[in-house]
Amino acid sequence: MSVESIEEKIYDLVKNGELEGIAAMQNDSAGRKSRLVIRLKRDANANVILNKLYKNTSLQTTFAVNMLALVDGVPRTLNLAQVLIHYILHQVDVVTRRTQFRLRKAEARAHIVEGLLKAIDMLDQVIATIRGSDDRAEARTSLMATPFSFSEEQANHILDMTLGRLTKLGRAELEDEMIKLRETIGELKSILESDVKLRSVIADELAEVRDKYADGRVTMIVNDPGELGLEDLITDEEIVITMTQAGYVKSSPAGSFRVQGRGGRGVQGAKLRDEDFVEQIVHTSTHSYLLLFSNKGRVFRLRGHEIPIKERTARGTAIVNLLNLQPSEKIQAIVSTLDFPKDKFLMFATADGTVKKTAFSEYDKSRREGWIAIRLREGDEVVRVVPTSGDDDLMVVTYRGMSIRFNEDEVREVGRDSTGVRGIKLVADDKAISLDVVRDDADLFLVTDTGFGKRVKVERFNRQGRGGQGVRAIKLSAARGFVVAAFMVNLEDEVLLASSGGVLIRTPVREVSSQGRDATGVRVMNLDEGHSVATAAVVPTEED
After folding, report:
1. Mean pLDDT in the chain?
2. DSSP character for 229?
3. 76-213 is classed in which CATH architecture?
4. At what angle do helices 3-15 and 46-56 cross, to 10 degrees?
5. Residue (of 313, 146, 305) closest to 231 by Cα position
6. Angstrom distance (rounded) from CA 261 to CA 208
7. SS3 assignment, position 444
8. Integer distance in angstroms from the first to the last C-alpha of the chain?
9. Nearest to 532, CA basis, from 543, 540, 541, 524
10. Binning pLDDT at 50, 70 and 90, where does residue 298 land?
11. Between 1.20.1050.10, 3.30.70.330, 3.40.50.920, 3.30.1360.40, what CATH number should domain 3-56 receive?
């Protein structure tokens, strides 16, 4: 494939909107040297673009090798490891047979030399016996009888020699030859008796072939990281992923948000258009998998580094450019994970109070077009998805400040393409807005849309059977608004809050007072006129 054809394919991908982030291309090829320079936009992720180029162009190609060989007389298709194994076994057989042949030949020659040495000691008698015999057969019989006792092979060899050669036999030469033959026989027998020595012979012979015929390698053997192996080239860094109500997503370094005291105004986040506001915040890393659950019950999977990195004040990239979303479909929950354990679960909560438990491993799929995560009833939608251990207590919180705590044992495990069971019984005009795992060392943190919040000790919420109306988690009024976020926190945690105007604030949990279930909370974020708190999320500690 020529550089020009690759350049043309990349141009088509950019023109059709299938590949973003490329600003310009320049073909610097000259002579037999190929060089294509691709210049990226300032906010483009070079590793992600390179991976897409490998996938969608012939910049990287593969070809099949059909390694068919006869194994024990049967044709078989082998992989590289099997080819090497069978080749070595073949070499073992070849060297073994060759050594056995050489041993037989050396032993036969030693037997003859032994007979000749014996004949030298009684040469006159041998010659007299041969001359006194009527024919060759009589002479062979006489040599095989007493006092000679030669074997048939030794007798035949003596008879095959001319009289001149027989009389000129020298003991010294024969004795030297016998010494060398015995050494050879000993060496050959040691090879046959030791598998280690036999394989060392094979290694030495292959090394000789290499030294004699080897030339410079024209290809490189490297580890193939695969399509999703880009994390090996990317530094694992903490990032904050934000998504707006209009569907714009971006990632920013976690250090972009400095810690402030409660009640502050925060730093300017994304510069959003009218009527758009930040809806979701996820504190994760560039190496993590992101499971993005839509309100329609579908799930998509990305890696943290695939979310475009933007400045803190940037609006972000439309999520529809990263995911194949349907009309009126939006991402409702994002779960960050490094693996997909078989003994863990994902618990879903929907707006009508339904909960569902499914094995975490069922979501280990690399399909980018999305697949069913939960079967929803008409008019319902997903509001939260959390990972669980299989024996956790769960807390559901509603828009009007009600809550219920129950053990997940009460929710049986079902498959992905299933509906759930009732988690909390809702009153009129209420809806579930949160689901979280209860931790004994944590507090429930609640935030209202008017900027008030509080911590409540989890022991103030007794475990109940699922499906009940629950108990009050926060006392609401017109001034306090309605609950927009509720999750578990530790005193060492920090929380990120985002307003509908795009302002973000990061504040320590310790500075928000702990109150009872019937308390109304304290001011945690000052809001500009006409703005409200859109969402909030906990920032995990380094240990988490």
Report:
1. 86
2. -
3. Orthogonal Bundle (1.10)
4. 110
5. 305
6. 75
7. strand
8. 48
9. 524
10. very high
11. 3.30.1360.40
